[in-house]
């Protein structure tokens, strides 16, 4: 069966500390997956490896139908290949307008010269307006993104991710700091997105994960502890140990 | 009968003074020799006086030594009343006189005596002649000084007296010295090759400068040329291949010098010859306007040669032919092949040892440079490494320390005491300056490192100009105490000045101080805590403001002490800091930020590198610095975080 | 939405208008073409100032927009000057040598002319042969190409090395400073082929213009400098106005995030670094014929730091700010250090500005950094009544190099 992303036998060590230990993980082309795990389980490092920020000491990370290795690619190349990443903290370019932010993220040639001579077509403007409307920023196009509220920034960032049209979305704790209504909106959006592309959600909040209603991977000490439906993994005694503290053996 | 002979001799001597004297007739007294060569002695010249002095020395008359000594020391004069030579001893109101035979001649006023003042060349010849007497002089100091004279100016005729004096020498040190000198003179001047070779071999393994000075002339070579097919004359060092060992031009110049080929025309000479032969606006039928290429000028000259108007000169082809028709070789100045072979084998042994010694010396140099960079950089490593603050004014803190030392010396003339006062004072001054700067400027810029760089740069130019306004642009001395003068000498090659040793020790002390401070004290613990996580540290009751202030002050204070160390061997100017700031930054960056061992490694690397490059290209320290910086830029490629890098999350990216 | 570039950036038009009026005004006041109110040397100073403004524009693009504090752009400036200086010196010496040789009985050979030039130029460093770097010095077009190529390629090579290894922030600044120092030290050597610390001189004499007086040439150079500055301003304004400008400002504020958008940050930095190096080099090529002399001291790292100082005082991140800063500070500098500023007598001490100007500059620089991060350009915001939202001074991006909110508002 063809997988979109296949991570196998990956390990990485920081100053003697094994952050990721022989981790294997794969996800299909249109799948929603939640990754949970206690602090220090290696969730963020895992994302760093997939997006090219951290180079693993060993292992393979293969991508797409042609099974390209992501390990030899730079962050920008990986992003262009179709991996989008949303950070925990909203990171938008606050000095620039919402429209500029979205325009920058819009799928187009990324080389310096191409960008220098690029000028927006009417279609691009309408696409930006459309995206802004989709994330609820339709009337804020000309505002500086630094003036937006925290939630609005999150939406802008998601809008930018959508503009990139990635095949795989890595989302780091999307629900952090959101109101209940915003969470529900987010859940609907993620489920909707996962129909056309792969979405990996890293999350702490079990309730949120339950609402996503998808396959769950539990990470612990840098490797996969359990995988399956949320109900399945929450019955796993090891997972209970990890989350609730180890009882007497 | 005797009187008659003496009279005859006297006549002969007066007729042929030098010839007679050269025989060293024991019958002739020193006084007579002097008398007979009156003209020469009154107006001596270095070129011609030699035989007279030799005759005196060889006369066997014990008075001769006195006369020669007096002459050399301007104690020989002429009594104006009768023109007699007298030996003079200065007294309060004139001279006490003796005649040349030693008899007392009363006193004389200064005005009555014409002093003889031989020039230094002549005095040198006299000194050489006296050496043989001094070698056996009962006074040890005189014997020692004679040996020094011989060593400085060895001559073949000194060999015999030296050997003769060897057996009688009682002082062991002098005996050894005499023996060494004897062998040195033997290897150069002994007529017997076997003795020379033995002398050379006896030096195997020796490194002395005097030995190298004695051996090198033996191996000096001259380039010569000879026609192909003839046997090469002389003690051949090696044959030269034109084109690889020497250029064609050099080869041809040798031929011209040896009269084996006609001289080549320089373009200027050619031009002059053509100009001299301009006839009706043309040279040899070629119009002047066409003579604007070298080829046309050559054609014109050849035409003139054919017409016999100018001397034949070698053309380029002839030069090539002549060079091909000759052999070129180097011969030793020393004729005896076995001697040169022995000398070159001993010398190459020396060279290998010398190379090792030079490496050792270079290592010492590099180490001392490294400790200077370490001292200059350690304060920076604290401010930049621990606080991530670029302090462009760090160099000016170094300068401030150096000027503090200078000012203290103005008030405390005792150099040792002033140094003792200046070191802590410099620390205090720059500590205060650092704390003030941190409070007033840097505190507000912690999140904006690029602007810290520029703001501290503003402070740097202001401080530099302020120093110029106060102390002027000329260099001020910071004198080291006498006990730091001189050098720790291991042998002729390996030595290091005491100032540099002191700086090395100072650097070590600071390394230990820093380690102690960071690892063993409360302050160090708090500094490390603030470095890693300021807000967490703050919530645990540490005041980050206070820690930052102290850390910055400490870094600046150490810069002040480094300033004194640097001022001791470099002149104190307002640009003192400028010369070290880039190297200091390089040291910190190359070593790796946030780690004292990294700074040490960086200083060692940069010091070694700079000395190493200087060794390859000693004439050009500018080029050495250029290449060093290029190397560092490349080095950053491979280790962007420095030699000792923090990895992983601690690296903070 | 699809307005033209100039319509979207009215400040460019205003700038060009002011620049034209300035040039016209100076021409009218000049000795050669007007009422002779301004001396030739002052017109030269103004022309040089325009070149410095162009260099400051380049600095603003690389620092104010892309966030790279390069301490090496004056090295590119000086390199541009060296490249044009080589032709100026060669061509002028050639004329002198040919005149001298024409008095001789034989017409000169090419080799003799060459030797004569070499002896004239390099006698001062004890050499008599033209070094290899002077290979193209006889040709103006080739040497003009080198004005762009040499600094451009140097910037490309250095930038490639530095950006590839992800050296950023203060590290990069120090590295560029080291590069500048290395270049200066190299040029200080006599055997660098560029006359060591003597540098190149007599550059104000333009070959082929022997009959034209300096007061005319000075105005011509003023025109050329003004034209170059205008073109440079247009180019830079165009570069920063579109998506490219968005990307480089984004790189300044959060370069990691830009990578995850799929832009190769290194490529953009390299492009901007090289482009600005070339702009600086062109500015230098116009500057040194007006200055008349160039030597390695012009490359000293401190010159590049001054460039940063001008931009910071003028207000980085806005193009007119860089121009204002460079013009104001460099003119003030020459006024103070030229001894023309009146001394201040305090009774117990007389402040002689030649000695105290640097202190004033250094301290005012600290003050600008601390209290007016927007520089003089910030005054324009005050005039327009623009205020930025108060975000308690939080940085705009997570990177330490990012702008703070209060200084980012344009």
Description:
Chain A has helices at residues 43-51, 75-81, 98-105, 112-116, 122-134, 150-164, 180-193, 206-212, 230-235, 237-244; strands spanning 5-14, 17-27, 32-36, 58-63, 68-69, 83-86, 168-172, 198-202, 215-220, 223-228. With 249 residues, chain A is of the alpha/beta class. Chain A has two domains: 1-82 and 167-249, P-loop containing nucleotide triphosphate hydrolases (Rossmann fold, 3-Layer(aba) Sandwich); 92-165, no CATH class. In chain A, the strands form two sheets. Chain A has a six-stranded mixed β-sheet, with helices on both faces. In chain A, strands 2-1-4-5 form a four-stranded antiparallel β-sheet, covered by helices on one side. In chain A, helix 3 (98-105) runs parallel beside helix 6 (150-164) and helix 5 (122-134) crosses helix 6 (150-164). Chain A starts with a strand and ends in a 5-residue tail after the last helix. The model of chain A has no long low-confidence stretch (mean pLDDT 83). Chain B has helices at residues 2-15, 17-22, 30-36, 38-42, 50-58, 63-72, 120-134, 140-152, 159-166, 172-189, 193-202, 209-219, 248-257, 267-276, 294-306, 316-324, 337-387, 394-411, 415-440, 449-471, 498-520, 522-532, 534-539, 544-569, 576-591, 596-616, 621-638; strands spanning 76-79, 85-91, 94-99, 104-108, 113-115, 221-227, 236-240, 278-279, 282-283, 286-287, 326-332, 487-489, 495-497. Chain B is 62% helix and 9% strand. Chain B folds into four domains: 2-127, no CATH class; 135-219; 265-313, no CATH class; 354-651, ABC transporter involved in vitamin B12 uptake, BtuC, CATH 1.10.3470. The radius of gyration of chain B is 38 Å and the shape is extended. In chain B, helix 7 packs across helix 8 and helix 12 (209-219) crosses helix 17 (337-387). By secondary structure, chain C is mainly α. Chain C has helices at 5-8, 10-29, 40-65, 73-101, 110-122, 140-164, 169-188, 214-241, 243-253, 255-260, 265-291, 301-314, 319-337, 353-371, 377-384, 405-408, and strands at residues 200-201, 293-294, 344-345, 350-351. Helix content of chain C is 67%, strand content 2%. In chain C, a hairpin with a 4-residue loop joins strand 3 (344-345) and strand 4. Chain C starts with a helix and ends with a helix. Chain C has one domain (5-408). Chains in contact: A-B, A-C, B-C. At the B-C interface, helix 14, helix 20, helix 25 and helix 27 of B face helix 5, helix 6, helix 7, helix 12 and helix 14 of C.
